[in-house]
Write a structure and sequence with these properties.
The protein is mostly helical. Helices cover about 50% and strands about 0% of the residues.
């Protein structure tokens, strides 16, 4: 952030947060705390709630979603170019892909 943020501004903003959202605020604040890097040098995986993700700047959201997509592709390598005919037979009445 380019503008200096004063502690008083943060406290005033927190006072405006409805009480039912306090748990989310605490969770976000805890996630912002610096964490030591794991011994392997890899970053710890983080699970984001949709509210946490939406609270981040767009660039951070995009980076997190891109990393999640890359990780998911490792576990689900099936792509649109794969041929599923062996699974579904050669049904000539099937709609084109």
């Amino acid at each position: 952030m380019s503008a200096e943020v004063m502690e008083q501004a943060i406290l005033e903003a927190l006072h405006k947060v409805p009480q039912e959202k306090w748990g989310l605020v605490l969770e976000i604040l805890h996630n912002l705390e610096p964490k030591p890097a794991p011994p392997s040098g890899e970053a710890e995986p983080t699970c984001w709630t949709i509210d946490q993700l939406r609270a981040l700047p767009q660039e951070e959201q995009d980076a997190i979603l891109e990393a999640a997509a890359i990780e998911a592709a490792k576990f689900y390598p099936i792509g649109l170019d794969d041929d599923y005919s062996d699974l579904y037979g050669n049904d000539t009445n099937a709609p084109p892909r």
